[in-house]
């Protein structure tokens, strides 16, 4: 089920593509990968002017990439951005658990209302396909981030059957913790080691699913290719104990001659789960297994077979 770069180039070549949150950790890597496939235009939408400025300095000489400083909370901004677009990658979101816990209304405005704007604008402008980027925290959620992303997943699923949608296919991808992204625990440990601070350990038995940024973007590009409407794509990942991750960092410091950090146990923070999950129980019966990822098929299409999962 994994496709090669030649097929991806054929699929994305000469297409107009919008990336919301396009100057974030994931968004910028999506843009970098898409550029390899010679799209007609990539529009990078983000509300952070500093990130936009730095990214524009990096790619500003390329004729097929443009930057749009805008907010997905504003429907007019999103409607304008989706005009003449073939595909939309929706990466813009509030993603940090503690921030969303402290500011739940802001999470709702961005992750739910912003997503609604993307859906409505995409349908209005007859975008072909939209991929929503979600998180494993949306499965049996216990925090504001997970709840808002779960609602967003359902919105993108239901958008396929909206009465006024005759052209647009929507799907979601469900991430684990992305190594190297801003705010990830690995980035936190790295910064604490550099600052010669103790490593902040919540609970050594706590587990998390991890994926690299290239793996995440590979999943996203494949999801767009295979999307027929309503699916959820999930990378195959193994859970890792945070305690083992701390041991690995300490061993790395020892082997490289760096200062071996101490460990400070801080306990679980508000909104955290001991163990994240990739699937709901009711999704177990409607999931296809590929070489690299799972595909949760819409309920009404639960009888679909793996051989029928083809690009459209």
UniProtKB/TrEMBL annotation:
Pfam families in the record: Polysacc_synt_2
Stretches assigned to the Polysaccharide biosynthesis protein CapD-like domain: 17-296
InterPro entries: NAD(P)-bd_dom_sf (IPR036291), Polysac_CapD-like (IPR003869), Polysaccharide_Synthase-Rel (IPR051203)
Top-rank taxon: Bacteria
Family according to the record: Belongs to the polysaccharide synthase family.
Protein name: Polysaccharide biosynthesis protein
Species the sequence originates in: Evansella alkalicola
Upper taxonomic lineage: Bacteria, Bacillati, Bacillota, Bacilli, Bacillales
């Amino acid at each position: 089920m994994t496709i090669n770069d030649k097929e991806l180039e054929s699929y994305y070549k000469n297409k107009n593509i919008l990336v919301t949150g396009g100057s974030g950790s994931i968004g910028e890597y999506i843009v970098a990968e898409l550029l390899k496939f010679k799209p007609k235009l990539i529009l990078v939408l983000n509300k952070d002017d500093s990130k936009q400025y730095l990214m524009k300095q990096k790619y500003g000489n390329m004729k097929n990439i443009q930057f749009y400083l805008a907010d997905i909370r504003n429907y007019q901004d999103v409607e304008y951005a989706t005009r003449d677009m073939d595909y939309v990658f929706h990466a813009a979101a509030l993603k940090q658990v503690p921030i969303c816990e402290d500011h739940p209304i802001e999470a709702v405005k961005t992750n739910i209302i912003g997503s609604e704007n993307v859906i409505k604008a995409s349908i209005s402008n007859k975008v072909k396909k939209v991929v929503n980027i979600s998180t494993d925290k949306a499965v049996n959620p216990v925090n504001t981030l997970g709840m808002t992303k779960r609602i967003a997943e359902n919105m993108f699923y239901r958008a396929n059957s909206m009465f006024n949608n005759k052209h647009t296919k929507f799907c979601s991808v469900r991430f684990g913790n992305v190594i190297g992204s801003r705010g990830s625990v690995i980035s936190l440990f790295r910064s604490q080691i550099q600052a010669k601070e103790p490593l902040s350990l919540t609970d050594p038995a706590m587990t998390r699913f991890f994926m690299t940024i290239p793996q995440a973007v590979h999943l996203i590009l494949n999801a767009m290719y295979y999307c027929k409407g309503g699916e959820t794509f999930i990378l195959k990942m193994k859970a890792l104990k945070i305690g083992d991750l701390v041991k690995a960092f300490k061993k790395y410091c020892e082997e490289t001659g760096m200062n071996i950090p101490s460990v400070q146990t801080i306990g679980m923070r508000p909104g955290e789960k001991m163990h994240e999950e990739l699937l709901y129980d009711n999704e177990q019966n409607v999931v296809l297994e590929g070489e690299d990822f799972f595909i949760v098929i819409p309920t009404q299409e639960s009888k679909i077979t793996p051989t029928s999962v083809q690009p459209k």
